[in-house]
Amino acid sequence: MGNRSAIEWTESTWNPVTGCSKISLGCKNCYAERMAKRLQAMGQPNYVNGFNLAIHEGTLELPLQWKSRQDIFVNSMSDLFHKKVPLNFIKKVFDTMNHANRHRYQILTKRSKRLLEIDRYLPWAKHIWMGVSVETENYVGRIDDLRKTTAHLKFLSLEPLLGPLPKLDLFGIDWVIVGGESGPGARLMREEWVMSIRDQCRKAGLPFFFKQWGGVNKKRSGRLLEGRTWNEMPVAFRNMTTI
Length: 243
Fold this sequence. Notes:
It is a single chain. With 243 residues, this protein is of the alpha/beta class. The protein has one domain (3-15, 62-241). 28% of the residues lie in helices and 17% in strands. It has helices at 31-41, 62-65, 87-99, 112-118, 141-147, 191-204, 218-221, 235-241, and strands at residues 3-4, 12-14, 17-18, 54-55, 71-74, 104-109, 128-133, 153-158, 175-179, 208-212. The chain has an 8-stranded mixed β-sheet with strand order 1-2-5-6-7-8-9-10. Helix 4 packs parallel to helix 5. The longest helix is centred in the last third of the chain and has 14 residues, at 191-204.
């Protein structure tokens, strides 16, 4: 069994890389940074340097050891496409994903330019999902970069959503996740922003997943939108679960 995750759209996490650096508005209150500092204080060896980027060769084969099939969020504590992660190591991560192909892998990046630059070197397979994070209109260019990659399934994580995204180009996108910021200093997310994205997904025939309202108390604010939960998943997910 993998490292169980409380993230609503996945089951487990796998962190061959830890640590990161801030590049956009969504990074301000990074939950991974808070967690890394807590793990450092607890003496967890992978976080001896806190949130400084670190590569962990010893974790590369973990998914091969996890017998039951699961959804795995790759690098929940970092960004696989950070400039300090060597291409050779990224290829090793992909080798593991392709060998341990009973699992489904979900990768997220804010560094879409590098993703696109090295896309041609990466052995994509249908069980490896690629997504980009977009927090305001200033970063919708990441969606264009993702669209140009050869990843089979492409998704968006609009979290933390910090502004309206009224005219999303969803061509070539397979799944959309929306969520508000949680934890200390959480910034506001407006209901009309969420409704607009939900309606755009409906119009485009795309599955919509509403993760959370966020706020300081994530549990209290919940994840209901118009009185219901939105846990829609890509068609590929439904197909794979019937295998």
